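Notes from the 1:1 (GR / supervisor)

We went over the backlog. Supervisor wanted to see one worked example end to end before approving the batch request, so GR pasted a single chain during the call. The sequence is below; no edits were made to it. Supervisor asked that the structure be written out right there so they could see what the output format looks like.
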Amino acid sequence: MGSLINGLHHITAMANDPQDNINFYSGILGMRFIKKTINFDAPDVYHLYYGDDIGNPGTVLTFFPYSGIPRGRKGRGQMTVTSLSIPQGSLGYWMQRLQRFGINHSSPQHRFDETFIAFEDFDGLGLELVENAHDRRAGFTYGHIPIEHSIRGYYGVTLEEDNYERTSRLLTETMEHTLVGTAGNRFRYVATENPGHFVDIIHQPEGARGMQGGGTIHHLAFGTDDDTTQLDIRERVAQRGLHITPVIDRQYFHSVYFREPGGVLFEIATLPPGFTVDEPKESLGSTLQLPPWMEQHRAQIERGLQPIALDMEQFR
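Structure output shown during the call:
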């Protein structure tokens, strides 16, 4: 029997201003703006996607930008850090670039066999750039960031839990992850040997619980090969007594959702059909894409959305 979970698929977060969001992730960080669509559950709100050149699973960050949303609070029961992978020897470049655009960051830190810096986006979302020699994925650039320093995709994610054992059992017994490292109260798991799929749990029984809002993670999605494997893993999750949704068509993948024991919203997303299903690779992110069942409302939807633009000149 093949693997049902093949690593991380995408991460979705809450943001405030959509133009600021594009400026940060495509302008400053250089990730490709791969999809401009809407939140299918709230069509007056954008759903913005960033990733590599075609939005391969394990590279995609997505955002719901609710203009005026109060800032949330990172804490227990949340995914609190998204770690992005950069090539060995690139930290110096990125520290200078972040400083140039007024983004505060930590000094280089060390964990396991990696070196990283920590910082936040305009909304306070927790981010890391992790320098490593293991990631052979191709980078992406609009030309304003040297390809040899460009972001490769995820390195991993960090969850804060007040009882890490429950989430650990879900990951290892149901979701095919393996414990591969520990450091103090940090426990690292992975489902695949491919780069970019670490899931770290920090055991944090003290401190405040997280509160959703701007600058916090909405959900963490894991990838599965297709509709058949998705139904198999859905049944496994249901057998653990966790409430899991029916399959939902998200246009670029099919999804099921459930909350893991610590409270983080997990998603299982299929690899197909991918982001070129409604626009070619060459023009990804260039126009507003709507699912077929909302196309009849395009004029009304467009009137309700803030105009946004991808302007790279100011970030060169």
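Supervisor's comment: The chain has one domain: 8-315.
Batch request approved.
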